[in-house]
Design goal:
The protein is of the alpha/beta class. 29% of the residues lie in helices and 19% in strands. It has a four-stranded antiparallel sheet with strand order 2-3-1-4. The protein has a four-stranded parallel sheet with strand order 6-7-5-8, with helices on both faces. The chain is elongated, with a radius of gyration of 34 Å.
Length: 268
């Protein structure tokens, strides 16, 4: 080989070597000084240990092990992108912010097909309100799991506590109160009305307004805190409503029952 060719070969090798050194020098500081970011990491089946080593090799650290993902929550310089393609890793996803859908200022009763605003609109209740049919003077007997007096059900005269026919009725701290949630939910749908809402504002889009917002709820508790009851209790509740429908100024014109059971005989 001529001296010219030998010199050219040495220069080529030196250029490649310098190029590799340049890549190495440029890459190492980039990883070391990159801002750590949270990554959600899934390991390949059976390779959690390998994925963990890859996280460490990338300069990262594991903050939580998450068995349901077969993976980790990790802080990694450069974030999830620094883990892509590394040994044992099935996926690496950047963490992101989240918020509850009920966050103030973002909920729209008009856009929610199942909001009370749209429910009263679709069923025609809002048209009845304009004619004065708001439920005023009418009591609705709610045979259910009791009612907790929450906003919308706390106005004076909005809620009458009838008998509590459950075992919880023997304990002052649980008597009449809804430990299951269903009764309170139904009471709101039937006659809920947010505090401070006047009859002229019944169609408001920013307040909770039930189907018959001026009606009164008479709660008859028959279901325990696990939602259980029995037919005999419901029959006793109906008997009480029939007997006392017009006692002490009450005017029970409607009874609400929301139950399911296995039928063992004819409906009669």
């Amino acid at each position: 080989m001529s001296r010219f060719h030998q010199l050219g070969r040495r220069l080529s090798v030196a250029s490649v070597a310098l190029g590799l050194v340049g890549v190495s020098v440029a890459w190492a500081p980039a990883v070391a000084h990159a801002t750590p970011a949270t990554a959600i990491v899934r390991a390949l089946p059976g390779q959690a240990a390998s994925a963990e080593r890859s996280i460490a090799a990338a300069g990262g650290s594991i903050s939580h092990r998450v068995d349901i993902l077969n993976g980790f929550i990790a802080e990694v310089p450069g974030g999830a992108a620094a883990l892509v393609g590394r040994d044992g890793i099935a996926s690496a996803t950047p963490d992101s912010s989240a918020h509850l859908l009920g966050k103030e200022g973002e909920y729209s009763s008009e856009k929610d097909d199942y909001s009370m605003y749209n429910t009263t609109k679709v069923t025609g209740a809002q048209k009845y309100w304009k004619t004065g049919a708001t439920g005023a003077g009418i009591d609705v007997a709610l045979i259910d799991s009791g009612v907790v007096p929450v906003n919308g059900l706390t106005a004076p005269g909005k809620l009458v506590q009838g008998p509590d026919l459950t075992s919880e009725g023997q304990v002052p701290s649980t008597a009449h109160l809804d430990g299951f949630g269903h009764g309170t939910h139904m009471a709101g749908i039937i006659a809920g009305l947010d505090d401070g809402v006047s009859p002229s504002d019944f169609k408001t889009k920013t307040s909770f307004v039930g189907m018959a917002p001026a009606a009164r709820i008479v709660s008859v508790k028959v279901a325990e805190s696990d939602g259980s009851s029995d037919v005999s209790n419901v029959i006793l509740a109906l008997a009480w409503v029939h007997k006392h429908a017009h006692d002490q100024g009450m005017n029970i014109r409607v009874v609400n029952l929301s139950y399911g059971l296995d039928a063992s005989g004819r409906y009669q």
